[in-house]
Give the backbone structure.
Amino acid sequence: MENNRGSWNSNIGFLLAAIGSAVGLGNIWGFPYKMGKSGGFTFLLVYIFLAVFVGLIIMASELALGRKTRKAPIAAYKAVSSKYSWLGWFAVLSPFLIMTFYSVLGGYCIYYIIINLMGLFGGMPDGSSFGAMLTSIPASLGVLLGFMLICFIIVAGGVSGGIEKFNKIGMPALFVMLLVIIVRALTLPNAVEGLKFMFVPGYAVRGGFIEEAPSLITVLGTAGGQMFFSLSLAMGAMITYGSYLSKEENLVKNSGIIVFADTLVALLAGIAVIPAAVANGINNGIPVANIKLNGPGLLFSTLQDVFHNMGTIGGIFGVIFYLLVLIAAISSAISLMEVLAAHFIDKAAEQGKTLDRKKVVLIITAVITVIGALVAADGLGSNHITPAELFKLKVNTWNDCWLDFFDCWSEGIMMPLGAMLMALMIGGEIGPKVMLDEIHNGEHSPFFSKFYRFCVIYVVPAVMCLVLAGQLTDFFGNQVVSYIISAVCFIIFTYHTLIPDWKKLGQDGNE
Ligand code: PHE
């Protein structure tokens, strides 16, 4: 039955929505700070390599899977695979878990817009606002509600009427604001040190920013995790957006544009954020080794100090900057919510029912807000209701605050594992040809076909194995154990994929 799924009005509308999904906190916050902790230039090179050889491949595959099946992730996986039909659950659970904290971070942007606006009338806030906000539970809850309300209105408006419309205005606006911030950041005295950190090989260590460069394998893990998150992959988002896309559109070109745009914005965000943070630190006489490019403080504390030190005019740049981060957060959050909405709408349609989109989105919004409230009340661990404290566990990254807890399951485990299994499913079970037929839709590019086959069969599973190990190390700490777990997963699933008769053997020859 033709249901109320909706579709994009135009290819450019789709592209802006997909770029909107990709461009988010991952670009503006995650990219600069992961670059900061992973040795600057080397990270950048590894990141670009991974975006081309892995990101592009999974992007094209997800869009193709969505468009081929015209379904949300769970039904889409069911339609193409018997061994991996359950993988769709990852692609629905992950976005839900991500939303529980993404919404809180989005709320923080609203808070910062407000305090910078107030700063215009005197008393520019500085980096200490971050601690104050985290410990003020009512403020954190209030802005969380505000953020969710905005997302509700957009997603309830539908695919073309809400999501596409928002991105058509939001994305160009974001780009212009980013350019304004870059010009301001690069004209600060000493900003060039930040640029050298980003673009001169080895400068991160020589310049004193980090003591010692992390090993290549650690950088691969970090950059791979970052790249996946940033491109909105393995979260069902691109499958869902692909399912609304017309058969005429060229998936190779579209995937290339999305990957390029997302990487460009991450780089531009790095150029806006890193030199500003470095310049401000140096101008305040802080030795470069102590300039914090690391962790949550970068966006909400270090940068707020930058705006504070500009005086009242800093309020204007503060408002522009946090508004652009807010737009980026909204455009990503609505794609995560759409995955959930599409799932329920499709499921009902399968049973011959038509659900009211507004009601579905309202329920999704409510559930996310309730769990998000826990993350907000926790205040990144400031308010002592962390999983570690509540359950009296040994403190580790996975349990030191609720944000990290939900992030660990989604970004840490389901995302890399899901991507690894998707590549195994395509390369080993259903075969790259099925995907390539949809990607090319009639017109073949022999070069891309070869490139796709090679990457999906060899490069992606191997890289995802490393990324999984890297993520497990980040969250649980033990590198050796993490690598063993990751390798075991890889071997078991490769075996599972490549042995076609496993099930039949177990069932003694029965179908
Ligand atoms: N890509 C978004 C970001 O960079 C996050 C996101 C992940 C959005 C997965 C949708 C799906 O912040």
